[in-house]
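Give me the fold.
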Amino acid sequence: MEMLGKIRRMYFRDKLSLHQIAKRTGLSRNTIRKRVRAPEATQPAYQRCATFNKLNPFHETLEQALKADSFRPKHNRRSAKTLFEQIKRRSVLPDLFTHLHCYLFRWLLSVWREIPSLLATSAWLWP
């Protein structure tokens, strides 16, 4: 983690106080104190458990649709509303649009390096 190195550098090399480091980084003093006192090789490990969300049954379908749309011209790509309507026709679940919007945003960020043309348009994100 880069921030851990920056905090330790500011404290040990630059001799800044915890308060000054907190002001510069925006982190709380307790967090900074914990990072400074931790052994040097210790990296914070965050464990996130896999959560079920209402869109899980449709991830494969969405992935396939998004990959297919990535090769289409911008004006022919499906919007988030269109994808939502397609999912809504197949399921009896209530409003999933917020979940769909979040999934599309995460998908777009995860593949923007592979297909740079996706970053140029936000057709999927806005209805």
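The chain is about 55% helix and 0% strand.
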